Amino acid sequence: MRTDKIRTVFLTILLLFVMFLYLQNLKHEYSKKLNEYKTFVKKAERVVLLEDRWSNPSKTEKSVRNLKRRFKPKIFKKEAGKYIMEFTNLTKSGFGRLAGYILNSNLKIEKLDLKREGMKGSIYLEVGI
Amino acid sequence: MSLFKKNGKPLVFISKNHRYSFNEKTDLLLSPEFYWVKRVELNVKFANEVKKMAPSLFEDTLPKGRYEYVVFKITPKNFIILAYDLDYIKNSLSDLGIDLGLIDKIYLSQIEFLKDEVSAFVDEDLVLSEIDGIVVLIPSKYADAKSDINTVLKNKKVSKNYIYSSSYSKIKLQEGDYRAIFFLLFLGLLLLSAEILKTHYDIKNLDKAKSDFISNNSLPATMFQIDGIYNELKSISDKQIDLRRGVSYLSKFKMDKEEYFNSVSYKNSVLFFNIRLKSKKRYEEFQKFLRAKPNFKSLEIREIK
Description:
The complex is a heterodimer of chains A (about 130) and B (about 300).
Chain A: H1 2-54, H2 57-71, E1 75-79, E2 82-90, H3 92-104, E3 108-117, E4 120-128
Antiparallel strand pairs in A: 1-2, 2-4, 3-4
Chain B: E1 2-6, E2 9-14, E3 26-30, E4 36-41, H1 47-57, E5 68-75, E6 78-84, H2 86-95, E7 103-108, H3 109-112, E8 120-121, E9 126-131, E10 134-139, E11 147-148, H4 149-154, E12 164-165, H5 166-169, H6 175-216, H7 223-251, E13 260-267, E14 270-276, H8 280-291, E15 300-303
Parallel strand pairs in B: 2-3, 3-7, 8-11, 14-15
Antiparallel strand pairs in B: 1-2, 4-6, 5-6, 7-12, 8-9, 9-10, 13-14
């Protein structure tokens, strides 16, 4: 019967409509997830970058080793998650070089004392690992 | 002829022995003279299967025409098949003086009395009756009818199985049109299904990309944890950058000969300094310089005497 065909057409259109609504819902879910993913990746990349810059034990170790080798601290110790160093009897240029090295590095400085004692200088440094 | 209002529209019983004239939209109930009926016993389960066989079951018994078939299952193996030619019906109705534009729906007696027994006078000579499940017109002298068709139809509720509706007839579609529509709808279904599958796949891929990113960078799984770590690292970064900017700012003050910082110390986000300047004026200049310092997020600069 012709009515059967028309009924089938209407039912198919209804099915298409329901599928379309379902697809819209899926697209919305996808778009939401994509935004969440982008935000997550963006923030995670910042975390990775900051972690690498300020909380990278191997980089800290390397910088501290260089400090120790180049400027020969009077006191050098590693305790409670930090390095403690004291440089004394520094000439004006040595003082400037050491201060520059410390401040230009990515060392996590917890405590810093730059002192002038007559014509000599001293630097006390605590670095977090 | 029977005429009464049903749902606001008149329903009229039509037989070939009368002429009709309407002046409003009317539903028609056709007498058995307008269609063909066959009762068959077949070893099949569903009426749809019988419908496919219907043309061959009526082969050589129907006049030439474009027939449509309706099948009803009576008992597990018994089926009633109706064959009708809508063009023939329309022509016949036209011959009876009926304005086709005033027909709303057309019903068949066989379908409407499929479940209810009927025995009613159509006129003085004919009775609409039922023999072995088939609705027929028989001479009144052979029937024991007690009421006329008007009275019977008065309390009769018509089914939804009409064979024609004026609302459908406005859309005059041929077989080829239906094929095209079905093809387009099928295509639409295919495209939508493909898009749904693709979107499902994309969502799944997104989840995988996130978990891969997390495992490759040894990160925690939730945004909440990431936020916590980020805030902590950001605070460290701000403090370290401010310390360096603070020292850099202090060193920008132009010192004269015999002027110098005695000490510069940093602890707990505070930068202490002790400066030696040669005059009070120079000291005021330094204070002015200090007041012009940039804003530090997490650094305080304090002088120690």
